Structure formats: structure tokens, C-alpha cells
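Q: Protein A?
A:
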Amino acid sequence: MIRLIWSASVHIRYFMRRYMPTNIALDALRTRRGHKWGLPAMLLTLPYLYAASFCAQLIETGAPGWLHLIVLVCIWNAMKFFWIGPISLFLLARERIREATATRRIEPDTTVTAGQPPYSTGRRNSVLLD
């Protein structure tokens, strides 16, 4: 029984990560290129909270009870997008520190081969013979 529950939860998680738009967006924000979009993505919390508020008002006026599920999903997505901003700033700072230390560790090759100027363009220099 536990194996069946475990397997079902794994498949549900895979489906949610693969096909739900907010999870796709959050996965894109967790990449190196997406870290800079974390703070603008926080602005998506406002439409989700507005949708939750709107559905809650509809429920109060007599709309069907299944809208409670929509309210919960909207609030959950709003929380996810709210927290991705500070997390992406932290991840971006960590990556930039790693990149800076990596570039400091790499020392440029200062050895000059015989007969070649230190800042050569890579083209052969013509040599005039007397």
C-alpha cells in the first residue's frame, strides 16, 4: 500500500512539474539565466491574489463550493512567486561570487614565446631581412 501511494505521488509530482505553467516558469527562474527575473516575477503574486479574492467573493454570493479549490491554488501560486524573488537574488549573488572567484583563480598565461611580441594579434609579422 505504501509503495502504491509513493508511486502515485511520484507520478503526480512529475505531471505537475512537467505540465503546470507556474512550475515551468519557476523552473526557468531557477536557472542561471533566469535568476535576474526573480524580482519581476514577484509581481505575479498580485494577479493571483486578486483572482483568489474574486473567487472568494463569488463564493460568498452563492457560487459553487468547488471554487474554494481555485482560491487555494491561487494563494499557493502567489506564495510560490512571492518567495522566488528573494531566493533568486540569493542564488544570483552566490553564482556571481562563484564566477568572480573562478576568474580570480585563473591566471593569464604570461609566458612569451621567442620572437613573438607579448600582445600579438595572432597574425604573422613580416620580418624585413637586411
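Q: Protein B?
A:
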Amino acid sequence: MLVIDSSIFASVIVKDEFYEKCKEYLSVDRATVDIAFAEAGNVLWKHVRMGRIEKEEVERRTELLRALIRASRVYGSDELLPPSMKLAVNHGITIYDALFLSLALQLDTNLVTTDRKLYERLSPDLRRRVILLK
């Protein structure tokens, strides 16, 4: 099992430059955090606002996003908050990113992301737990 962060779901929904690599990770046994709905949904909204996706497409893509995330084991951010806060404070990463990383550590697996800034902020021992798609 792998932990998939919001960037992977968002990439597939908006079909950005990471689309081909990201969609491969949607066929594996995967887990995610409940905030993936809001974070990936926000990316979809931004693409509509920028005119990259037609408004008529939003409903269909929103339902696809929901289905993709629901096909994962979705964990609640409330349970992950205490260890995530510790990671965020100690490593200078956002609580959002820390939630996904904390889940990967809890499940003793790797986190898959396209977030280079997150990856670069982590210590070498935590970087080994992250699969950065480029």
C-alpha cells in the first residue's frame, strides 16, 4: 500500500504535466487523508478560474475526483493531527503535508507526491519515505 497525497489526485483530474505518471499510482492499493477532497477540489476550482477547464466540465470532474479518492482507504485528519503537528513543527512543513507524511509513517509505507518543495524540506531519513514524481 502507498499513501497518495492531493497532488496526485489533482494531477489526474486536471490532466497536468504529471498526469501520465500520476495515473499509474491510482491502480495500486492506496491510502490517503480526508483533506484530499478539499485540496484536490481546490486545484480543480483554480483551473476553472484560470480558464483551463470549462465550467461545464466541473460537475463531471468533481464526481470523478470523489470516486478516485473514495477508491482509497481514507483516514481522518483528526486522528493524525497530533503526530502530524510534531512533524510540521520539527521539519518546517505545512500541517497539510505533514498529515500525508504522518499517515505514511503510521502505515510503514511511502508517500507519493509531485510536491518538490515538500521533498526538499525533509531530512534525508524522511526523504527515503517519499516517492517524488518528476
